[in-house]
Design goal:
The chain has 13 helices and twelve strands. With 398 residues, it is an alpha/beta fold. It binds 4'-deoxy-4'-aminopyridoxal-5'-phosphate (PMP) and glutamic acid (GLU).
Length: 398
């Protein structure tokens, strides 16, 4: 038997967030007391009213194939949500519901990109962007940033990265992994630049919308002059603690929505009927239902920052949203415990896992080799213990 896999798959890396989570699950199964802060997933359970809507959906026999772009009631609810929360006008036929925002992003990539198209990824970027754009053969073009720039790239950097082949720019705000949030003025500046290039599409990933600590969430599609060039991606995983339900969605110009619907129709069909009904309940509710979780995340952010600040050699950013801190750990490069030499962030992550039993994700996965990502979507008790372990383990390095 020839076990040859496709060139496409050969060119893809495994998701490093999921790989680290798998590794920590394996160690836990072996009886090791590993704390995993590697996956970006709220530790809260889905709110009761959402679960009730799902139970009702089963009883009401929402158990059949669904329309490919999603139930019309859900697309209406998303259209209303876009207007209510983001002041965006997307009619229901400009909205496509998919199996998680990850699937929305995959639809965009496979439906719109061709081999050799370039996609600009301001770094640090969410781990899967780089791999998803590679599926149709497009080329990720990374723009570096650093903690001193609050992990945001400048307009001059974006401009310098644009070529005749640039087709898209992808970014998230609030950002996974840095927690940076783009202000309205910064978004306007990006929009004004991209407006000069009518063939470039902006993919604005706003899945952390409800976990932003700086006030009102701003969407780049709010600027009418650029809206035709923007795809707004969102979902219920993070804000509503619904990661397992697998519902994401996009709002886009109709030709783009139609392209994604065609792709989805051949790939997965419409997503899960019961999850759609649950998502509808979530999105029709007053968004204050997400506030309690947001407040807990904000409190944990303070806790994590104050504990991490006590660790020598760590340079911290001040994340304004999402539930990650992304410290620069480059001071530890070149150090050793007498056995293992730390050459980079990946070495440090493995050292912390093997010696401190804490699972984190290397910044290299997100396009920043100086940093590591710590998810603080865990209880205060767990966070305190995890940071104690990180501190003690790093102290072994001289
Ligand atoms: N975008 C970003 C920035 C994320 O962090 C995630 C989290 N997994 C996703 C998209 C995908 O989310 P989901 O597929 O669960 O909707
Ligand atoms: N988005 C989350 C993370 O960054 C979930 C894991 C994943 O889908 O990669 O950890």
């Amino acid at each position: 038997m020839n076990n040859q896999i496709s060139n496409t798959l050969n060119n893809l890396s495994e998701s490093e967030t999921l790989a680290m989570t798998r590794l920590s699950r394996e160690l836990i199964a072996e009886g090791k007391d590993v704390i995993s802060l590697s996956i970006g997933e709220p530790d809260f359970d889905t709110p009761e009213f959402i679960k009730d809507a799902a139970k009702k959906a089963i009883d009401d026999n929402y158990t059949h194939y669904t329309p490919v772009p999603g139930y019309s009631e859900l697309r209406n609810a998303i259209s209303t949500k876009f207007k209510r929360d983001n002041n965006l006008d997307y009619s229901p036929d400009q909205i496509v519901v998919s199996t998680g925002a990850k699937h929305s992003l995959a639809n965009i990539s496979i439906s719109l990109l061709n081999p050799d198209d370039e996609v600009i990824l301001p770094a640090p970027y969410w781990v899967s962007y780089r791999e998803i754009v590679k599926i149709p053969g497009a080329k990720p073009v990374e723009i570096p940033s650093s903690i001193d720039q609050d992990f945001k790239v400048s307009i001059a950097q974006i401009k310098a990265a644009i070529t005749d082949k640039t087709r898209m720019i992808w970014f998230s705000t609030p950002c996974n992994p840095s927690g940076s949030v783009y202000s309205k003025d910064e978004l306007r500046d990006i929009a004004e630049l991209i407006k000069e290039y009518p063939n470039i599409i902006i993919v604005s990933d706003e899945i952390y919308e409800h976990i932003s600590f700086t006030g009102k969430h701003e969407s780049i599609a709010q600027f009418d002059f650029i809206k035709d060039q923007v795809i707004t991606v969102n979902g219920v995983s993070k804000g509503f603690a619904m990661t397992g339900w697998r519902i994401g969605y996009l709002g886009a110009p109709k030709w783009i929505a139609d392209a994604c619907i065609k792709m989805q129709g051949q790939f997965t069909s419409g997503t899960c009927s019961i999850s759609q009904k649950a998502a509808q309940a979530a999105l029709e509710a007053d968004p204050v239902c997400t506030l309690k979780m947001k407040k807990s995340f904000e409190k944990r952010r303070e806790l994590v920052l104050s504990l991490m600040n006590e660790i020598p050699g760590i340079k911290l950013n001040f994340p304004k949203g999402a539930f990650y801190v992304f410290p620069d750990v480059s001071n530890y490069f070149g150090k050793s415990d007498g056995e293992t030499v730390i050459n980079n962030a990946t070495d440090l992550t493995m050292f912390l896992l093997n010696n401190g039993l804490v699972a984190l994700v290397t910044g290299e996965a997100f396009g920043d080799p100086n940093c590591i990502r710590i998810s603080y979507a865990a209880s205060e008790e767990v966070l305190i213990e995890a940071i104690k372990r990180i501190k003690e383990t790093l102290a072994l390095l001289k």
